[in-house]
């Protein structure tokens, strides 16, 4: 569970809090340039630890950061794999090359998220380990060579035919066809150039699992979000705490030359730790314009109206799931999953607090500089009058 810290946490939600379009613009403007530059700097500094160890069990263990490959050199499946033995015999000599390769990252991807190079050497280790495990389990079908799901070509064509010279060349050179993996996905690899084509405005969606990296923004029309706590109002199943009441308001307007209808919505969360966390996640979703969209109303069938955008809210305090109310034991988990599918995660709460604190600190520094300039100017005028 993520707990709020700092100024924002102490403020709480006991009085009306409103998120207006101006707040959205401030967060987005800062993110477009300053945050992406900071991401590049921080992610460049993240270099994977690469190690090769031969232990007392006659096992060779190769680590690339958190990824590990272990081979029993006495296992007949290892002894019969000549290409693997060839690579294992050279890998200690290639450690420095592997470290350099690991540090060569693409800046367009770094602006959004960290990633790692998946070299031809590591790919051979990966395939070999998969096939050895299958052989040990008596699985007849071997692991097929992986394909980039974007272009549908092999990650490294005919990897089992690579010579030592080809492995070394791939480590020494940087090519747009190099293979990379996203930092939070397990076993999802792509050609670097293919992944670059998946970069949207401030975010990347993993083509395999749809995990969002960075900040995804939607097409929600301008509106307001207010929240307050009623200590005497209860959600069914949460009789020991008050209720967070969320009010959304969207005026009618015109988009792309077409009139659309606005709307007002009220939603409820229990005022407990999990409810407050979900409120903060919903605020982030609102700021990123993800909670509503313009489309067809399921209720009225009317087009060009402001409607929910796939993040379910509880619009009743009772009645259970059938009436969009409580109790609903799995609601919080479903809500967090729906927000995660739009790139809103619990860690973003702390990140947003930090961003707001940074903005406040910058504003304070600017005021100090302005006051110093005014003081200096006043002193100069005073000295001029004395002369």
From TrEMBL:
Pathway recorded for this protein: Protein modification; protein ubiquitination
Reactions catalysed, as given in the entry: S-ubiquitinyl-[E2 ubiquitin-conjugating enzyme]-L-cysteine + [acceptor protein]-L-lysine = [E2 ubiquitin-conjugating enzyme]-L-cysteine + N(6)-ubiquitinyl-[acceptor protein]-L-lysine
Keywords: Metal-binding, Transferase
Composition bias type Basic residues, residue spans: 1-12, 378-387
Region span, Disordered: 1-37, 354-387
Protein's recorded name: RING-type E3 ubiquitin transferase
Organism (species): Pseudocohnilembus persalinus (Ciliate)
Keyword Metal-binding: yes
Skewed-composition ranges (Basic and acidic residues): 355-368
GO terms assigned for molecular function: metal ion binding; ubiquitin protein ligase activity
Enzyme Commission number, as recorded: 2.3.2.27
Residues in Deltex C-terminal domain copies: 218-344
InterPro entries: Deltex_C, Deltex_C_sf, Deltex_fam, Znf_RING/FYVE/PHD
Database matches in SUPFAM superfamilies: RING/U-box
Pfam families: DTC (PF18102)
GO biological process: Notch signaling pathway; protein ubiquitination
């Amino acid at each position: 569970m993520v707990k709020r810290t700092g100024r924002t946490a102490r403020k709480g939600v006991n009085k009306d809090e409103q998120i207006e379009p101006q707040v959205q613009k401030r967060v987005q403007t800062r993110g477009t340039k300053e945050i992406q530059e900071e991401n590049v700097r921080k992610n460049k500094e993240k270099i994977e630890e690469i190690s090769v160890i031969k232990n007392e069990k006659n096992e060779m263990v190769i680590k690339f950061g958190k990824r590990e490959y272990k081979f029993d050199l006495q296992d007949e499946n290892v002894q019969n794999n000549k290409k693997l033995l060839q690579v294992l015999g050279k890998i200690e000599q290639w450690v420095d090359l592997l470290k350099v390769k690991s540090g060569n990252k693409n800046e367009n991807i770094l602006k959004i998220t960290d990633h790692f190079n998946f070299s031809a050497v590591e790919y051979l280790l990966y395939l070999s380990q998969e096939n050895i495990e299958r052989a040990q389990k008596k699985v007849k079908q071997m692991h097929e060579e992986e394909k980039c799901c974007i272009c549908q070509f092999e990650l490294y064509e005919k990897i089992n035919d690579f010579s030592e010279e080809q492995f070394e060349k791939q480590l020494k050179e940087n090519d747009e066809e190099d293979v990379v993996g996203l930092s939070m996905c397990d076993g999802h690899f792509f050609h670097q150039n293919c992944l670059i084509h998946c970069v949207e405005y401030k975010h990347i969606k993993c083509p395999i699992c749809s995990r969002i990296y960075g900040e995804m923004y939607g097409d929600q029309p301008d509106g307001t979000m207010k929240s307050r706590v009623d200590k005497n109002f209860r959600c069914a199943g949460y009789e020991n705490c008050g209720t967070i009441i969320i009010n959304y308001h969207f005026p009618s307007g015109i988009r792309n030359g077409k009139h659309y209808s606005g709307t007002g919505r009220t939603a409820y969360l229990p005022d407990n730790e999990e409810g407050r966390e979900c409120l903060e996640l919903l605020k982030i979703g609102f700021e990123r314009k993800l909670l509503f969209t313009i489309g067809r109303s399921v209720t009225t069938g009317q087009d060009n109206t402001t409607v929910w955008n796939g993040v379910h809210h509880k619009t009743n305090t009772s009645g259970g799931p059938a009436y969009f109310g409580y109790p609903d034991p799995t609601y919080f988990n479903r809500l967090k999953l729906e927000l995660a599918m739009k790139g809103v995660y619990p860690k973003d709460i702390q990140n947003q607090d930090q961003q707001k604190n940074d903005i406040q600190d910058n504003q304070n520094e600017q005021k100090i500089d302005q006051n110093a300039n005014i003081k200096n100017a006043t002193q100069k005028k005073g000295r001029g009058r004395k002369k």
